[in-house]
Design brief:
The protein is of the alpha/beta class. It contains 30 helices and 19 strands. The longest helix is centred in the first third of the chain and has 21 residues, at 228-248.
Length: 754
């Protein structure tokens, strides 16, 4: 698909579509908006919403047949909303019932409306308000039609006069039209009521626009058997149809004005407590408090499944349709501001696909944003700084920290352990213990440590990702194409995507089937929740195996609301931190607050992210190998790189009997002191300790620095790759003390120094 094939990507989104009650209403009243205003006690605002849709609110609230009640989702749960009584309350308690007045230029098109009932009056008002030359013909001596048989004229006549007071309309009473040739018009509406004159035009009526076979003539209302509220609904449609006809001569009407009778929108009531309808204490009408209370029973049905599952939609306060439209527009936009906004939106997506899983229409905005990241990358407008850190981290993992070996004493392999790059970064023992366990069960298990390419894939660099996958495939081929044992759900998902010919299974499935190793801890039937990584969402076997392992180890598992096939991202996915740190932090807080129970997970990114924010959480390998108790502190970014080297050396020395390179303590050429507080800030800013050290060394060796006497510190910057790093530091004898650091993607162009 090309970028322009996505215009209709979210067209089936149900967000904002009519709820069942509105679809049942012939006028398609926006019940959501109406109820929202009443819930807040805003009777005037509610009245305006009602009036703009129903034309004559003081009449409709008394003659409405309440079809909405039959479709109200609460009807089968407790009691349907008393909407007509709420409409009456808005009419009674509005601060102003003054109709709108538009200062529009007069139009020279003549509109004839035949019939002075609700249908004719509505059409005349709609077109007269738009300054068409409207003449209404009523054969009797009074307007109102069947309303005289339904209501007190003291109610409906003042309402008609009030709503039509600013309308350009000439009403001719006692004028019966026996032939359309008797009057002059550019367009006409026949609204003669039940049993009224139809001028032989009942055959061939357009059911949507209400156009007849005679050009310019439309028909509707009681003459077609409509109920009072349907009179208004059909006349409103006809007003739009007439306007289209007099402009371009077409009789097919305006689709956006057509009556909607069906909706796919549904509401889950599983978490809704039954609540009886409010009964008025005095008379048949609500007082203000009663109206507000009844309005609050309205659930304002809407589809918010994606919003409830993922914070992206609430953060940007935009539905999928708008996000798609903005993304497509910005691809060809020359506005840097617009392009940046859209890019940040798509770069804030975890790409986990949960929205597509929970969406009743299957709209996966994750796949959309993934593709559009690639489109922008191809157009050279996708900011490389968003993914620079993660890609450099991947390159480190696939070079200095990489290991690929056949099992000792073997020339081929049935299995290959692929722990990925993050497992050993969190704790090298995860890799070594797991591999030793596998060698005991499958002695010919090979090992390949490196990154699966996810950073390049999420960063939209297809060429780089292909290179990583090609490197993995080359080594895998050299091992004889063994089955791959994964410990990282993301690695397994990525290689399933790009290395189709490879068969894979998770480490946890092996452990659940073959038995746990010795040295496991006993949680003592402690209640815990398994946090399923988003990449495991479609891997039911992996999810079940982890739960089985946890149970075998003594844990009592309680499920989170979002688990299994609805697993949520911990915030790490898609590498959104650089593009939207605030959203990432919101996601993390929501995940750790989902339950008071401690978590078990099987993704080190999830575990380290949660523990860093104070959540009690263990990796399943902590339990089975007896590692990392309650005092575990996630390693810093620099330590994570060091841990990868430690994992490599431990394997080479203890498993393969090879000599490994010595790992320097910090790798700095000068003594640099970084406090725990600053380490936390560096981690949050995705700045390595070695990058800070390089910046300080550059400042000291070149003299390119400023001295701040108030803070008694030096300030300088150093550009490495595409990122410029700033440091504020002090001196204490032979030590350099880091006080602050930050980075950005701007290049500072300086004049040549004298």
């Amino acid at each position: 698909m090309t970028k322009f094939d996505y215009e209709n990507f979210a067209k089936d989104c149900l967000h904002g579509k009519l709820p069942p009650c509105s679809a049942a209403c012939p006028l398609n009243l926006d019940v959501r908006a109406f109820a929202e205003q009443l819930q807040a006690g805003n009777f005037t605002a509610a009245y305006k919403i009602l009036r703009n849709k129903v034309v004559f609110p003081a009449i409709v609230c008394r003659v409405c047949s309440q079809l909405c009640r039959s479709r109200c989702v609460r009807g089968g749960h407790d009691e349907a909303i008393s909407l007509r009584m709420l409409e009456l309350a808005s009419v009674r308690f509005t601060d102003s019932d003054e109709p709108l007045r538009f200062n529009l230029p007069k139009k020279n098109k003549r509109i004839a409306v035949i019939g002075g009932g609700l249908a004719g009056l509505t059409c005349a008002l709609r077109l007269g308000a738009r300054c068409y030359d409207v003449t209404l013909y009523e054969r009797s001596g009074r307007v109102g039609g069947r309303l005289w048989d339904m209501l007190d004229p003291g109610v409906f006549l003042p309402e008609i006069e009030r709503q039509m007071q600013y309308v350009r309309c000439n009403i001719e009473l006692n004028r019966e039209i026996n032939s359309l040739e008797d009057i002059e018009f550019d367009a006409a509406y026949i609204a003669t009521g039940k049993g009224g004159e139809h001028f032989g035009l009942l055959d061939g009526i357009d059911e949507k626009s209400f156009g007849t076979v005679r050009p310019g003539v439309f028909i509707g209302g009681g003459v077609l058997g409509a109920a009072p509220v349907e009179d208004i609904a059909q006349a409103s449609v006809v007003a739009h149809s007439i306007e289209k006809y007099v402009k371009i001569g077409r009789m097919d009407g305006m689709p956006e004005s057509f009556m909607i009778t069906e909706t796919k929108l549904k509401k889950d009531l599983s978490n809704v407590s039954p609540e009886a309808a409010v009964k008025p204490h005095q008379g048949a009408a609500y007082d203000r408090d009663e109206a507000v209370a009844e309005a609050k029973r309205c659930l304002r049905c809407n589809c918010t499944e994606c919003k409830e599952g993922c914070e992206l939609f609430s953060y940007f306060s935009k539905p999928p349709q708008l996000m798609v439209a903005e993304a497509i527009t910005t691809l060809s936009s020359k506005s840097g501001l617009t392009r940046q906004h859209s890019t940040r939106t798509m770069s804030s997506c975890n790409l986990c696909g949960l929205c597509g899983k929970v969406c009743p229409q299957g709209i996966d905005m994750g796949s959309f944003f993934f593709d559009f990241r690639h489109f922008k990358f191809e157009d050279k407008v996708y900011p490389p700084a968003f993914h620079d850190f993660f890609i450099r981290d991947m390159l480190f993992s696939n070079s200095a920290a990489a290991v690929f070996r056949l099992a000792p004493g073997h020339t081929a392999a049935r299995y290959m352990f692929f722990p990925g790059c993050q497992l050993g970064a969190s704790d090298p023992r995860y890799v070594t213990r797991s591999y030793e366990y596998l060698l005991e069960i499958f002695p010919d298990t090979a090992i390949m440590i490196g990154c699966c390419g996810a950073p390049a894939d999420w960063g939209a660099d297809r060429e780089l990702n292909d290179s990583v996958i090609a490197g993995i495939k080359e080594k895998w081929d050299s091992f004889g194409r063994p089955a791959i044992i994964f410990s990282c759900p993301t690695c397994q998902l990525q290689l399933q995507k790009f290395l189709h010919e490879a068969n894979g299974i998770s480490l946890y499935e092996v452990m659940a089937e073959k038995g746990l190793p010795g040295g496991k801890t006993e949680p003592g039937r402690k209640s815990m929740c398994v946090f399923d990584p988003c990449a495991s969402r479609n891997n039911v076997s992996m999810q079940r195996s982890v739960r089985r392992m946890a149970y075998m180890s003594g844990a009592n598992i309680e499920e989170l609301q979002f688990h299994g096939e609805k697993a949520q991202c911990c915030g790490w996915g898609g590498h959104i931190a650089k593009a939207n740190r605030n959203l990432e932090e919101r996601i993390v807080q929501n995940r750790i607050n989902a339950s008071e129970n401690p978590y078990i997970t099987y993704c080190t990114n999830c575990r380290d992210t949660f523990v860093r924010e104070g959540k009690e959480c263990v990796h399943i390998l902590d339990i089975v190998f007896g590692l990392n108790g309650g005092g575990f502190a996630p390693p810093s970014l620099g330590t994570r790189r060091k841990n990868r080297l430690i994992a490599r050396n431990m394997l080479l020395e203890h498993v393969f009997g090879e000599t490994s390179e010595e790992i320097k303590e910090d790798g700095f050429s000068m003594k640099i002191v970084i406090s725990p507080h600053m380490v936390k800030k560096l981690n949050s800013s995705l700045i390595l300790e070695e990058e800070v050290a390089a910046a300080i060394e550059h400042c000291e060796s070149t003299g390119c620095k400023l001295y701040d006497p108030e803070k008694n510190c030096y300030i300088g910057h150093f550009k490495m790759g595409i990122i410029t790093y700033w440091v504020e530091y002090g001196k204490n004898e032979d030590k350099y003390i880091l006080l602050n650091s930050y980075s950005h993607r701007m290049e500072i162009l300086e004049e040549n120094r004298l």
